[in-house]
Input
Amino acid sequence: MTTELVLAPETEQDLVEAYAWYENLRIGLGAEFLGCVDACIETIIRGPELYGTVHESYRRALVRRFPYAVFYEYSSGVAIIYGVLHTSRDSAKWRGRVS
Output
């Protein structure tokens, strides 16, 4: 069964901000960041129940090489990504997106 992927509107802004920050540190690092996020999302699509729940039915997948996490919910073949956030950020930020 194929998992359908849905990105919440805030997710794109998360990625734009993080990309710009890393790209500002070193040219090409932003692209590396996006590649690692893409690999994480591909893993979610292939095995959406692989990652444990962190709050109610919401799950968290950690991005390799970068201190970021993908917060998502999976139900009935659909994975909804609510945010890609730095792991040191307050968890209330992504929880506020799903309330």
